Amino acid sequence: GYLDSNKDMDFILNNFDRVAKGIVKGVCAIYGIEYKEKEKSSLSREEIKKQIIKLVEKL
Predict the structure, then answer these.
(1) pLDDT in the model for residue 32
(2) Which of 1, 15, 23, 52 has the fewest CB atoms within 10 Å distance of its CB?
């Protein structure tokens, strides 16, 4: 179905890691790539966000 309500958005935001993992597993399955669990990062989400912004700014 579509994600077209506040309830849907709340679910995504409150289950971000679960949703992201499901998307990654689906993309891997489509392209025949083995999904492997990654070790948890010691960085916080905020630190990761800052690093991503720095990388994007370099583009």
Answers:
(1) 95
(2) 1
